[in-house]
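Lab manual, section 2.4: Encoding a predicted structure.

Procedure: take the sequence of the chain (166 residues), apply the prediction step described in section 2.3, and record the output as structure tokens. A sample record is shown.
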Amino acid sequence: MLFPDESELIERIALALIQRKERMGTAESCTGGLIAAACTSLAGSSQWFERGVVSYSNEAKTELLGVPAAMIALNGAVSGEVAEHMARGLIAHAPVDWALAVTGVAGPGGGSEAKPVGTVWLALLHGRKPVRVWKELFPGNRHSVRAQTVRAGLEALCDALEDRDT
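Recorded output:
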């Protein structure tokens, strides 16, 4: 398995989604599809994983997920507003019940005083209802920031799926 640290987490997500008869998808920027790759590393994931969209550029966020260019211009691509809209766009365009979106500054360049390297926004939606939109500041190099983002997103999804109120 490519993602041994996440294997138990992915198995729990798979079980919960199958039991709920629900499917998920991802809208990823800074992770470049690593969350989708982690999910699909489990055999049989086609039962519960529908699709992943890698929207690395601002244009892709607009064209593929419907994030308004004005929103990106106003808030920056690395923002809670954009992360949530990425997830909303996936829900609107794909047959998924759950959408996990991530956008951030993985480094080593691209950071600023307001958004240093390691700044990541994540959004988790169930249907059209936001479950959680949150910011993380992960330490380390590009590989570490991306790995921590994958883990944080999967943990939040697993927690939400195992919470009987969502």
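Check your result against the sample. The helical segments are 7-20, 34-40, 58-65, 69-75, 80-93, 142-162.
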